[in-house]
Amino acid sequence: MTVEGEVGRNIRLDLAYEGTLFHGFGIQPNRRTVQEVLEEALTRSLGGEQVRVTAAGRTDAGVHASGQVVSFTTRGRLAAQDLLRAANAYLPEDVIVHAAAEAAPELDARRSALRRHYRYLIWNGRLPSLWMRRWSWHQSSTLDLDAMRAAADTVLGTRDFASFLGHRSQEPAGRPTVRTVERADWWQDGPLIGFEITANAFLRHMVRGIVGTLIEVGRGRLEPAQFGTILEAVDRKRAGPNAPALGLILTGVEYPDQFEVTRADPGTRLHCTDQDRCQENPRPAWGLGDRSGGRSDVLSDMIGSRRATGVS
Question: What pTM does this model have?
Answer without folding.
Answer: 0.85
